[in-house]
Amino acid sequence: MPANMLPTVFLPHGAGPCFFMDWSPPDSWNRMADWLRGLVGQVGVAPKAIVVVSAHWEASDFTVNTQAAPGLLFDYSGFPEHTYRLSWPAPGSPALARRIRSLLAASGFESAADDRRGLDHGVFIPMKLAFPHADIPVVQLSLRRGLDPAEHLAMGRALAPLREEGVLIIGSGMSYHNMQRFRRDNAQVDADSERFDAWLAETIASPGDEREQRLVHWAEAPGARESHPREEHLLPLHVVAGAAAGDSGLKVFEDRVLGSVQSAYVFGASEGGGDAI
């Protein structure tokens, strides 16, 4: 991997504004928050710009936020009032948005521009921890309705040149996301979550072609649909895996929260960054 090429990252973004409010038990999200605060160390270098694909934006075409100063979209409900007054005033980058659309077009993808939508909580909640100074330009890119895994892998491949341009590509989701099975008590972790997490770790560590084939057919994995009744929280992983091309992938973080296993992955980490667990 060229020395100037950034890795790609899949991170768990937690539950709503969980890192910025009281929770029971009170330490539920501490390990994940600490890991997010150390993200630059996992990457190994501060990026010039960031592209985030969040589980919380789906559009008919891959859509790019083109605003120079995007606001925040508080797309959660039922949380304390102060969590709707959080701020994270990172700049956007219309130039990077144009570059993304050019790369998508070169790979045969239709895309669209959005100059109104704020950054959703899949972006600003984890980024507020990882990049608290909000001084690096951020562009959000949507998933595409239909949620086809092969298509999202291919979209990620289209974005790969950004890695040599100082751009960090982040997929923000959850490695397990079954709202019906989440529980406050972590005394017993969902066995399907453990099975799927083991398969996912093995898959990400596989060689590039094998990894992509396994991700295309992810729904056949043990515990897959029990872990993701709907795949929107998983597909940001496909995007960053596609952008990684043949670079190796590592599981770099694991937590047990809400009765589930939650993991993070880094692809193409340089020496000294992205320590496997």
Low-confidence stretches: none
Largest sheet: 6 strands, mixed
- List the quaternary state of the chains: single chain
Shape: globular
Strand order of the largest sheet: 5-2-6-1-8-7
Strand content: 15-25%
Query: Helical proportion?
Result: 25-40%
Q: From the coordinates shown, what is the CATH architecture? A: 3-Layer(aba) Sandwich
InterPro entries: Extradiol_dOase_DODA, Xdiol_dOase_suB
Family: Belongs to the DODA-type extradiol aromatic ring-opening dioxygenase family.
GO molecular function: ferrous iron binding; oxidoreductase activity, acting on single donors with incorporation of molecular oxygen, incorporation of two atoms of oxygen; zinc ion binding
Cofactor: Zn(2+)
Question: Would you give an account of this structure?
Answer:
The structure is a single chain. This protein has 277 residues and is α/β, with parallel strands linked by helices. The chain has one domain (8-267): 3-Layer(aba) Sandwich (Protocatechuate 4,5-dioxygenase, Chain B). The chain contains 9 helices and 8 strands. It has helices spanning 30-37, 39-43, 94-106, 121-130, 149-159, 191-204, 208-216, 224-227, 235-244, and strands at residues 8-12, 49-59, 62-65, 111-114, 138-144, 167-173, 249-257, 260-267. Strand 7 (249-257) and strand 8 (260-267) form a beta hairpin. Helix 1 (30-37) packs across helix 4 and helix 7 (208-216) runs antiparallel to helix 9. The longest helix is centred in the last third of the chain and has 14 residues, at 191-204. It is globular, with a radius of gyration of 17 Å. This is Aromatic ring-opening dioxygenase, catalytic subunit, LigB family. Belongs to the DODA-type extradiol aromatic ring-opening dioxygenase family. Keywords: Dioxygenase, Metal-binding, Oxidoreductase, Zinc. InterPro entries: Extradiol_dOase_DODA, Xdiol_dOase_suB. GO terms for molecular function: ferrous iron binding; oxidoreductase activity, acting on single donors with incorporation of molecular oxygen, incorporation of two atoms of oxygen; zinc ion binding.
